Amino acid sequence: MANQLGVLNALDAAKTQWYHFTAIVIAGMGFFTDAYDLFSISLITKLLGRIYYFEPLSEKPGTLPPRIAAAVNGVAFCGTLAGQLFFGWLGDKLGRKRVYGLTLMLMVICSIASGLSFGTSPQGVMATLCFFRFWLGFGIGGDYPLSATIMSEYANKKTRGAFIAAVFAMQGFGILTGGIVALIVSAAFDHAYKAHPYFRDREHSTVPQADYIWRIILMFGAIPALLTYYWRMKMPETARYTALVARNAKQAAADMSKVLQVDLNAEQEKVDKIGTEQFGLFSKEFAQRHGLHLLGTTSTWFLLDIAFYSSNLFQKDIFSAIGWLPKAETMTATKEVYEIAKAQTLIALCGTVPGYWFTVAFIEHLGRFAIQLMGFFFMSVFMFALAIPYPHWKTHNTGFVIMYSLTFFFANFGPNATTFIVPAEIFPARLRSTCHGISAAAGKAGAIVGSFGFLYAAQSTHHDKVDKGYHTGIGVKNALIVLGAVNCLGMFFTLLVPETMGRSLEDITGENEEDNGYQQRFSVEKVPV
pLDDT per residue over 48-57, tens digit each? Predict the structure, then answer.
């Protein structure tokens, strides 16, 4: 490629080296923390209900009122959405590295603060918990565009998809670790502080020490993030940002010479020629070149997250509905946390974690487009297979759990990974972080729709079976049918997303172009199919 900068060529052609794995771990630990923090809340909401909304005359343990439950489950997503837009924009303005440490420190401080939520009344504790979880989400939001963009810009073109997928796959370990930490903490408290089930002794089925359980689980999320802070600060700025956005060829060559351990020439005259006529996000030029791409990445991520987050956050409700979890009144508070954590850990182990790593293994063979289309297709199939014969699964709950695990497997060996990867590849360097942030924010909007909507929609159609404080809904069966239809829509919008396998970022975005016309001066590499 005659017009490609030498430093970018060197990155594209580099063999897989130690720095690639270092970058995966540094970026991946942010995602580990993200997933741990976002999904650990679903392990403790029933415990919060028992502790803070206990009613001595009720035959069932206390539960969070609908509005409080919606706020506790959804407030971090609202923060994440805002963080994705803000830090995505900031990552293009100030540079990836300068913003990267800030998001991590925000996550560490707010993870600890969430566990220290205080107040003299239930409303006070829930209000401070929601406040800290919003800002925790804000930090997590920044990690999405920055981690994806940094990994994309560091990777070589042959294994770029696998490396970005490996960063995202750390989410699976975060979800799994959340379950394991909850198992250990609840088992330890159950052993140390004995209590009777709720139906035997309502008042003492929740020991006072149970208040420490949810705090410990939430605060643990700070540890992995804290461990990687130093290494994040040591990472140099990506060469693509330094050369193509900051326009400093000398610094880009110097940074990458250290990383790749080769001598690279600064080619300032090439940088000055390449794409100086820059179009903005709201320009006609951007709309013509990337408008449909942005529609494709935002719509598919939005639709995926409606299904993915509604299923993930409300596993415990679905398991209770099909009888896989014992009835709440037959357990102590600590035992209930243990049972919910056990169920979610099994799902993570069997479906969630393997799905992520299947994507890592196959993305450079099958391509992004095929994996995303296949994932949406099988998610639709399994959602409908769960929903249509729903009464059958109430007596065959092992089969239900297997099918339910498969929906997660194909979410992660499918659109949950590819919707994260593609926006980091198809937009120009100066808008890459911003566009990834917009795409991810659309996803979080879907997560908010899923988490708030499913909470109400999945309520029983019979008045006597509705959770306290809720109105009748469409039932779990119909809610699953709606989610299946959402996945079908995802297949349709996937058609707007281009294939990026095996091509350099500048080839995909056209950033090797000089200014006289927008005619590309290099041969486009043929992608092996």
Answer: 999 999 888 8
